[in-house]
Automatic annotation (TrEMBL):
Keyword check for Transmembrane helix: no
Keywords: Transferase
Organism, as annotated: Brachybacterium avium
Entry annotated with the keyword Transferase: yes
Signal peptide range in chain numbering: none
InterPro entries assigned to the protein according to its UniProt record, in alphabetical order: Acyl_CoA_acyltransferase, GNAT_dom, N-acetyltransferase
Protein name (Swiss-Prot/TrEMBL): GNAT family N-acetyltransferase
Gene Ontology MF, one: acyltransferase activity, transferring groups other than amino-acyl groups
């Protein structure tokens, strides 16, 4: 049986963060910083109003994780369990075998290593908690902060995709894809 995110033993703790599944009421708590232009520059979903933000947030609760620092939500992320690509006769064995990770941080806590700490916790959650065999994360190539976090937590660059991503600025930007296998993750920890 493949565990679901909500079935794990919560909350989880890192040196400075407490992680738990997202809740409906978190939408209002993250809205003040999530709507900032420097945050919206790189997010995939633009919600111009609190009501639209809440609707989007509720739709993503199945994969949402929040990070609290000193009792305040300073990070939101996702561990979105997915089926691996497979031949049709292997579909059942490929079910739920990978996860996509993503994260967004309150700009007031940038530069303190909390993004790396949070992303590391999501990585651990995917491999140790959910037992996936592969994780992936993607970003716009110009999002240097996200790229640095991916590299710090040990993800491997798998591809640069030239002008494959249409940014809300109207420009076609390069995209980057990073990944890590469970075997690589366990090898690093040994």
């Amino acid at each position: 049986m493949i565990p679901a995110l909500a079935e794990l033993d919560w909350p989880l703790h890192t040196d400075r963060l407490e992680l738990r599944p997202g809740r409906e009421e978190d939408a209002a708590a993250i809205w003040p910083w999530y709507r900032m232009p420097e945050v919206q520059e790189w997010t995939t979903t633009l919600s111009p109003t609190l009501a639209e933000h809440q609707e989007h947030w509720v739709r993503t609760l199945g994969s949402a994780v929040v990070g609290l620092h000193e009792g305040t939500v300073v990070a939101v992320g996702k561990v979105d369990r997915q089926d691996a690509w497979s031949q049709t006769d292997m579909k059942e064995r490929a079910a739920g075998q990978q996860a996509e990770l993503g994260w967004v941080l309150d700009p007031t806590v940038h530069g303190r290593g909390l993004g790396t700490e949070f992303a590391t916790a999501l990585l651990n959650l995917a491999f140790d908690g959910l037992g996936v065999r592969r994780i992936e994360a993607a970003c716009f190539a110009e999002n240097l902060a996200s790229r640095r976090v991916m590299e710090k937590i040990g993800l491997r660059l798998e591809g640069v995709f030239y002008e494959d991503s249409l940014h809300r600025s109207g420009r076609w930007l390069d995209g980057m894809s990073y990944a890590l296998l469970a075997s690589e993750y366990r090898g690093r920890r040994a």
